[in-house]
């Protein structure tokens, strides 16, 4: 009997984000900008909805596709916000967070040997899941194009990789905060429509778009698009683990099979509360977005004045600055020094792929006080580094 574990799993090194966060966890008085988690508590009306569900004994299995009333609220939300039309019964699946939605979708669509195009830098899960599914990730370096993939680069990569099954888009982006205008989305869709490929469009930060409004690529190529979204970022519900997949019925039917094999179904009371969030949460999301924007501006002003090169992010709650030139491309040691000498925790850009090397990610989903103090500490560290 062979006692070897799965070779593909064995090749993974675990989450580089959580690994680095653990590596600096012993630093006293550390201000953490490491995790992409809202500092806000879940709004009271959402918690009240979960409490009511418990009182009504809604503690049994949900349908595998999720609580139907919540799926109906998601369908209304997607139409109200983005002009997308999904049938609640056949084209939406509630998942255990957006993470499971990504995994179920990628495994459903991919066969061993398929290729996945991923703009880099990117959230590492996309590459990990592609690897576990037996696929190959093709990275497109976006560091020279404002952290956005261009239609020209996408077309050239598709032409050079005819085995491509899927393109991953995540916008607004983790880790850069970059996002696409309506015209840019339309231009990408025009390229993708020429090829027999799917788009995994991770739009978990869609409601945290600062200038203009979010445009889903599903508006232009619905038959090729799998939309991923959820409650974690927009409604401060990370621990509730409610995400969703929205796609045409033929695709959703297949994804549902894999979803069932992973989790059977998600949490019934959490899904019920999520329906209330999608229905009544516009105001609380707007309040949180305004707070994030204020924090972004504080950091942009302070860190840019201190000499860091930073692309102005249009969404999500991340900055992705270039590390000081004294460190070359050694983002790991820069982040270690920043933690141990300045008491500020951030994530090395190399955690997000080859195009992230030499940068660092800073999540400003933190309190106003921590943002101000963290900025002061970083500026002081940079001043000392530069001999000021």
From TrEMBL:
Q: Which cofactor does it need?
A: pyridoxal 5'-phosphate
Q: Where is the signal peptide?
A: none
Ranges for the Aminotransferase class I/classII large domain?
A: 29-378
Q: Which Pfam families match?
A: Aminotran_1_2
Q: Name one GO biological process term.
A: amino acid metabolic process
Question: Which keywords does this Swiss-Prot/TrEMBL entry list?
Answer: Aminotransferase, Pyridoxal phosphate, Transferase
The UniProt record lists the EC number as 2.6.1.-
Q: Which PROSITE patterns match?
A: AA_TRANSFER_CLASS_1
GO molecular function terms here? Answer: pyridoxal phosphate binding; transaminase activity
Q: Which family does it belong to?
A: Belongs to the class-I pyridoxal-phosphate-dependent aminotransferase family.
Concerning PANTHER family, the annotation shows: AMINOTRANSFERASE (PTHR46383:SF4), ASPARTATE AMINOTRANSFERASE (PTHR46383)
For this entry, the protein name equals Aminotransferase
Q: Which organism is it from?
A: Trichococcus ilyis
């Amino acid at each position: 009997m062979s006692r070897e574990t799965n070779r593909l799993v064995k090749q993974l090194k675990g989450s580089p984000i959580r690994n680095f966060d653990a590596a600096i966890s012993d630093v006293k008085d550390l201000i953490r900008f490491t995790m992409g988690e809202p500092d806000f508590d879940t709004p009271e009306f959402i918690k009240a909805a979960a409490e009511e569900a418990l009182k009504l004994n809604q503690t049994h299995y949900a349908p595998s596709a999720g609580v139907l009333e919540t799926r109906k609220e998601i369908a209304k939300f997607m139409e109200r916000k983005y002009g997308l039309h999904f049938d609640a019964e056949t084209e939406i699946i509630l998942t255990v967070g957006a993470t499971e939605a990504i995994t179920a979708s990628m495994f459903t669509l991919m066969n061993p040997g398929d290729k996945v195009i991923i703009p880099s830098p990117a959230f590492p899960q996309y590459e990990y899941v592609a690897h576990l599914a037996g696929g190959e990730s093709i990275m497109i370096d976006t560091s020279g194009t404002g952290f956005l993939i261009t239609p020209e680069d996408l077309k050239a990569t598709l032409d050079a990789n005819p085995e491509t099954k899927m393109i991953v888009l995540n916008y607004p982006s983790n880790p850069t905060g970059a996002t696409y205008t309506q015209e840019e989305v339309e231009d990408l869709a025009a390229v993708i429509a020429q090829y027999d490929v799917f788009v995994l469009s991770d739009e978990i930060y869609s409601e945290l778009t600062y200038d203009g409004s979010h445009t889903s690529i599903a508006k232009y190529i619905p038959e090729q698009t799998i939309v991923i979204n959820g409650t974690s970022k927009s409604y401060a519900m990370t621990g509730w683990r409610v995400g969703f997949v929205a796609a045409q019925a033929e695709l959703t039917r297949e994804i549902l099979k894999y979803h069932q094999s992973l989790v059977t179904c998600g949490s019934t009371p959490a899904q019920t509360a999520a329906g209330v969030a999608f229905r009544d949460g516009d105001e609380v999301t707007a309040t949180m977005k305004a707070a994030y924007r204020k924090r972004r501006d504080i950091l942009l002003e302070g860190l840019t004045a201190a000499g860091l090169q930073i692309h102005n992010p249009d969404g999500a709650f991340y900055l992705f600055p270039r590390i000081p030139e004294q460190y070359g491309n050694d983002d790991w040691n820069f982040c270690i020094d920043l933690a141990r000498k300045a008491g500020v925790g951030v994530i090395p850009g190399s955690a997000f792929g080859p195009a992230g090397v030499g940068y660092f990610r800073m999540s400003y989903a933190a309190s106003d006080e921590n943002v101000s103090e963290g900025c002061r500490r970083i500026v002081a560290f940079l001043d000392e580094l530069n001999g000021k």
